[in-house]
């Protein structure tokens, strides 16, 4: 079954990109879920769509843009939106959650305007919205690999600080950790992962790949490190199984990946007699977990 995936270059690209995304999305998803920032992924995915639609619109009049991958414009918009979101969180200090709907609604509004101003790229947008095995190009794979290298390096360097911020931002600030700078760094990393994931999962479904494996891992984990491991395993199973089944069923891979991740989550929840025990254990350890990591 997997022989075909290594026989053709476009399938190899999709498979390798899927493995990378299956690692990156759950890894950052652990921090995102613990920090209760799940909606941030939706906001950044919509901003990414805006950047891609803007690129496709401009490329109709600027021919040189047709040779440039729209993914880069999507990444630029996603990073810009993440920076603006972090700025808004400081503007609305007592209502920080309002920054998310502001960015999300702005992204949707701009995206709709850009799409309505141009015709002729509906097929391209469909691939970006729901993912495509055929659409992953060598330049996409290069960009995704670059994001992997950057994110892994930053996580290795700042793992304990990001972990402390995830569990108790106020205490981290008192302890002297530069929370503003690290929050900025984390939101930019999230933006890059969201933008790079949309080729495989699709913009509308990428938040599911970030959160569903983590939701399942929470039910299985007894520690924060275990939650990382289970999240990555479930993410990889979902992506690889989703890509293979989508190819043979001739459907969008994003939907299959999400359905498999959802199926795993339901099996995990249904298989546990004491649902939520993992959550309670993690909450009980959270004040000390960052020191042991």
UniProtKB/TrEMBL annotation:
Main location: membrane
Annotated signal sequence range: none
Subcellular location: Cell membrane; Membrane
GO CC term (a single one): ATP-binding cassette (ABC) transporter complex
CDD domains in the record: TM_ABC_iron-siderophores_like (cd06550)
Keyword set, alphabetical order: Membrane, Transmembrane, Transmembrane helix, Transport
TM region(s), chain numbering: 14-34, 46-65, 71-88, 100-121, 141-159, 180-197, 203-220, 227-249, 255-275
Record Pfam families: ABC-3
Protein name: Zinc transport system permease protein
Originating species: Sinobaca qinghaiensis
The organism's taxonomic lineage, starting at the top: Bacteria, Bacillati, Bacillota, Bacilli, Bacillales
């Amino acid at each position: 079954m997997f022989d075909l995936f290594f026989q053709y270059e476009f399938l190899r690209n999709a498979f390798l990109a899927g493995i990378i995304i299956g690692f990156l999305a759950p890894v950052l998803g652990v921090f995102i879920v613990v920090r209760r920032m799940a909606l941030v992924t939706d906001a950044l995915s919509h901003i990414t769509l805006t950047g891609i639609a803007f690129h496709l619109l401009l490329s109709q009049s600027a021919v040189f843009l047709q040779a440039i991958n729209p993914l880069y414009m999507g990444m630029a918009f996603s990073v810009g939106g993440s920076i603006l979101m972090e700025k808004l969180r400081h503007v609305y200090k007592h209502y920080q959650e309002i920054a998310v709907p502001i960015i999300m609604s702005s992204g949707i509004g701009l995206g709709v305007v850009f799409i309505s101003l141009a015709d002729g790229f509906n097929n391209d947008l469909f691939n970006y919205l729901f993912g495509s095995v055929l659409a992953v190009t060598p330049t996409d794979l290069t960009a995704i690999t670059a994001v992997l290298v950057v994110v892994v390096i930053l996580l290795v360097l700042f793992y304990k600080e990001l972990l402390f911020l995830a569990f108790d931002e106020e205490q981290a600030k008192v302890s002297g950790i530069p929370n503003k700078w690290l929050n900025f760094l984390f939101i930019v990393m999230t933006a890059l992962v969201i933008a790079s994931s949309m080729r495989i999962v699709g913009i509308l479904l990428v938040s599911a790949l970030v959160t569903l494996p983590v939701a399942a891992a929470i039910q299985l984990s007894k520690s924060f490190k275990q939650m990382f491991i289970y999240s990555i395993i479930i993410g990889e199973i979902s992506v690889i199984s989703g890509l293979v089944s989508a190819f043979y069923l001739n459907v969008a891979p994003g939907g299959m990946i999400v359905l498999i991740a959802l199926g795993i989550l339901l099996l995990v929840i249904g298989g546990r007699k004491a649902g939520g025990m993992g959550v309670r254990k993690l909450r009980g350890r959270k004040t000390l977990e960052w020191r042991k990591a």
